[in-house]
Design a protein that fits this description.
Layout (H helix, E strand, L loop, with lengths): L2 E6 L7 H8 L5 E4 L8 E5 L2 E5 L12 E4 L4 E2 L1 H13 L8 E3 L3 E2 L2 H14 L11 H10 L11 H21 L8 H16 L3 E2 L1 H10 L4 E4 L23 H6 L8 E9 L2 E3 L12 H10 L11 E3 L1 E2 H11 L3 E5 L9 E10 L2 E3 L6 H6 L1 E8 L16 H14 L3 E5 L7 E3 L4
Parallel strand pairs: 1-10, 1-11, 2-5, 2-10, 5-7, 6-8, 7-9, 11-15, 14-16, 15-19
Antiparallel strand pairs: 3-4, 12-13, 16-17, 16-18, 19-20
Helix pairs in contact: 3-4
């Protein structure tokens, strides 16, 4: 049975966790394929909120095997703390599997992330300062430590000694920071973390291919989103991995032909955290209202999100980059109180109209959005469960988005709870 990918189509925070949790009811495996604990997925079940960082969203189902794939960077302390919180809430995490090829976030990665952001000052990238970027940098430089290294203390210590020598030189000479202790790190990772993590470690590539051979269902869950992708996002204001659907293959070990469904998650408006271009941003009372109604603060960091109207130009690009088969639209209910709503259908810069995102960042930074305005519905959508219940203006908005992006909207979220959605699949 081919696999399904869930991918964010904007700048993250679209509601991937909720959708993954919803789809997991029909799956056997849920795989996180990239990112670290810089992306939080918030899921609400029966009024109880779960904030997941590294553990895949499917963990809330008893029949799911949650998998942390090789493309993820793992902070062991964060992972174990998250497991402890879930266990305390009665969630069984015993089925969790971690790829031996996933890279470890080390204490010096966190320190480098913090001091680098401070050093950049007003040019800071807006990272979460949790060591994600430096860990991926070490992976690319081939000096990273992997989860499987925890199984061999001798190899772990040899690799650590090589890495920390260079890191301490940079921290001391460039940033005037005290050196990290290799002995202290080795003790934490090999004595405190390894005994709990080693039982979870497996050949996840073999595990997933065996599952496909048995006809089982696999859901691949990305963190962040398309326009935070290292290659295709609004560089340099991006993450350090590949959230796009292609990253699901490299980050899990499945091949392109193993995937036949790619669901793009899009908010009914757009949000962004941190620095970077944002053509439809609303730095006014309307933006403040979206923040208030949408509770637009980071799940992990608490940072206020920037808000703006829906951007169809972005979505057309996301369709191209991910080969999207369908869209799940979230938070439509946040727009319930607006008398009119707007959709960006194109950009204009220097007298040129753009239907797709301009490749040159200098152009993107100065584009003016071209809006189409539609009447709002001024109706509470949160209790609606059928298309037939929805007001005409809300249906017109969804249909307009479908026409603009060229991919059908199959599901619409109308609230934070797992069951608060309306299926458009039959339309």
């Amino acid at each position: 049975m081919p696999a399904t990918v869930v991918v964010g189509t904007q700048w993250g925070d679209e509601g991937k966790g909720k959708l993954t949790d919803l789809l997991a009811a029909e799956m056997d495996f849920v795989v996180r394929y990239q990112g670290g604990h810089n992306a939080g997925h918030r899921i609400v079940v029966n009024g109880e909120a779960f904030a997941l960082q590294l553990v895949p969203s499917g963990v809330l189902y008893g029949h799911i095997t949650p998998v942390i794939g090789n493309g993820v960077v793992v902070d062991p302390a964060v992972l174990l703390a998250e497991i402890d919180v879930l266990n305390a809430k009665g969630v069984d995490t015993s089925r969790l599997v971690v790829s031996g090829d996933a890279h470890l976030i080390m204490p010096y990665h966190r320190e480098l992330d913090r001091v680098t952001e401070r050093f950049l000052g007003k040019n800071a990238l807006g990272t979460t300062r949790r060591g994600i970027g430096p860990a991926y940098a070490d992976k690319a430089a081939r000096v990273g430590l992997r989860v499987q290294d925890l199984l061999d203390p001798k190899i772990f210590r040899e690799k650590l000694d090589v890495a920390i020598k260079e890191k301490n030189a940079v921290l001391a000479k460039v940033y005037n920071r005290l050196p990290s202790s290799a002995d202290a790190i080795a003790t934490s990772y090999l004595e405190d973390y390894a005994p709990r993590i080693i039982p979870m470690v497996a050949d996840t590539v073999g595990l997933l291919h065996d599952a496909l051979a048995r006809g089982e269902n696999i859901l691949l869950e990305g963190a962040q989103a398309t326009f935070l992708d290292l290659d295709h996002g609004t560089y340099p204001f991006v993450t350090s991995s590949n959230p796009v659907a292609g990253g699901a293959c490299t980050g899990s070990g499945l091949g392109p032909r193993d995937i036949d469904r790619v669901i793009g998650i899009a908010k009914a408006y757009v949000t962004r955290v941190g620095a970077g271009p944002f053509p439809t941003e609303l730095a006014n009372d309307t933006g403040d209202l979206l923040v208030e109604r949408g509770h637009e603060f980071g799940t992990n960091t608490g940072r206020r999100r920037r808000c703006g109207w829906f951007d169809a130009v972005m979505l057309r690009q996301a369709v191209r980059l991910n080969s999207l088969t369908e869209i799940a639209l979230t938070k439509l209910d946040v727009l319930d109180t607006f008398e009119t709503v707007k959709v960006c259908v194109g950009y204009e810069a220097d007298g040129v109209r753009y239907e797709h995102m301009p490749y040159h960042q200098s152009v993107l930074h100065r584009v003016t959005p071209i809006f189409e305005e539609m009447p709002g519905w001024l109706t509470d959508l949160s209790q609606m469960t059928s298309v037939d219940d929805m007001p005409r203006a809300a249906l017109d908005y969804v249909e307009m988005l479908t026409q603009q992006i060229g991919v059908p909207v199959k599901m619409v979220g109308v609230g934070p709870e797992r069951e608060q959605f309306v299926s458009f699949a039959a339309r």
